[in-house]
Amino acid sequence: MNDATRSFFDLLQVAVGARADLGRVRSDEEWAEIYSIALRHKMEALLLSALDRVPAEQLPSKRPMMRIYADAQKVRQKNARFDAELQVVADHYAAAGFPGVILKGQGLARLYDDPGVRTPGDIDIWLDGRTREIIRLVKSENPNVHELFCHHIDCQPFDGIEVEAHFWPSWMNSPIGHARLRRWFRAQKAAQFANKVYIGGTTAEGDTEVRPGSTVAVPTLAFNRVFVLLHIYRHLFQEGIGLRQLLDYYYVLKQGFTEAERAETVATLRSLKMRRFAAAVMWVLQEVFALEPQFFLVEPSEKDGRFLLSEVLAAGNFGQADARNTFMAKRSEGRYFWGKLRRLTRFLRYYPSEVLWSPVFKIWHFFWRHTH
Predict the structure, then answer these.
(1) Could you tell me the pTM of the whole model?
(2) Are residues 19 and 143 in the same domain?
């Protein structure tokens, strides 16, 4: 880990209130490296949260400060637009007979000390309905839709915002794990669709458009303690995952839980063969964000955590900075398939079940997509 990465971690810990200052003054060259890392992880707006807390003598010079401030304002404006559009998306599908739950995104941003600094990506909504009926509706509204997966289908954009309609929140490669996960989703479903909250609009200075918030269903903390970790796990295998999603999980855990709730979460993770991954994530959250031990679900694993952190730092936001992902260009189905399998071999030693079942799942998924 180089000095710039360590400095970035220090800044993140200031942003979440885990430390009071940066320890020393950074040069403009160091700030440029820190800013570059923040961009790779889509966390540039979070830098302003840190700079609002540090002593004046540790602030960067005017030029990098203005760049960070401008980035933060853009992210706040984007958040205000997303907050308002949640209602439009939820009402649209509810009117078609499919009530929904907003997954991840703005539902997690509301857990942040300052929701406006989380960079939004798209809107994921879990719809209550039969898979084929949801697919039929989405295709009728957008005949050119081309991304269909066993758990979601891409929809037409709403106000330029990408939307994914989920039949299921996620999946597992292992057939046994997949079946257990489906049962868990069914058991948790009613509580998620009943959990309505208000997500308020966050308006940046200088934004003349006042946007309302939305009253929508979002997952409970008990659900997110499993689901958000599973989301990180899935993307680690798919293309890579960045620190932004790990910060989401930090804030989920920081909401707290009883010992009985912790035991229930760990039992679910163990049934999905994710306990080892949870131990790696606990170490990363402690190393990067200084998560306190009372918020650990399991005892951290330094060995597994170091490997995970190296993957996260190489990948950036959803693997977009990972030079090893050239196969993502997807010039052919075959090249993509073998490229993904080569990628998965890196994780065989740590998560053998998901890796070894991946080829079988991909073959099944290929035929599933062509029959739906």
Answers:
(1) 0.93
(2) no
